[in-house]
Amino acid sequence: MEDFKRTLKLQIIEALNLQGMQPEEIDDNAPLFGDGLGLDSIDSLELIVLLERNYGIKIEDPREGRKVFESIHVMADYIQANRKK
Amino acid sequence: MDLAEIMQVYFSASMIKPIFIRTARAVCAQDSFSSNDLLQPVRTLSGNRFTYLEPNYQDYFTIMQLRRMSRITRLGLVTAIECLRDAGDTQPEAIITGTGKGSLTDTEKFIHSVREFAEGTLNPSPFIQSTYNSLNGLIGLHHQINSYNSTYVHSGFSLEHALLDAAFQLNEQSIQTALVGSFEEMTPEHYIIKEKLDFWKKEIDGPDAIMKSSPGAISGEGSFFFFLDYQQGAAPLQLVDLTLLFEPGEGAVLHAMDSMLEQHGLGWDQLDVYLSGRNQDSRYEHYYEKVEQRLSATTHQLHFKHLSGEFDTAAGFGLWSAVRMAEKNQLFPSMIRKQGSTQSMDYMLLYNQYYGKQHSIYLLKKT
Question: Residues of the signal sequence (chain A) (predicted)?
Answer without folding.
Answer: none
